User: What shape does this take?
Amino acid sequence: MTTPLRVTGIDHVVLHVRDLARSKRFYTELLGCEVGHESAAQVFLRCGDQLIGLFQVREGAEVHAGSEVNHVALRLAAGDYAQVKAALEAAGVEVHGRTGDPHCIYFSDPDGHRLQLLPPAARH
Assistant: This one.
């Protein structure tokens, strides 16, 4: 009998974007991700030990945010709900909670991909 496969973590998640430079700025300048590597059509951003791949769609192609991935939850190194919400809103980002948990931090990136931020106190 062969050993079953065992997943040990997420290597990366890919999000299709309309404007690669705009999305790169959003994830690096607002959310603090670091560029791992990039090319003209894609950027891989470090989020701790995981990566987010931003892939530029071809001109005229549509982005289907939310239809392939419900949301990506990102852990924060520091901050609490009020600080994180204030920082996002100061950047012009609309923040909302979820049913039964209004203090959950959900928002969308410039292409409509739903993101969640988890301050240290919010982790399970």
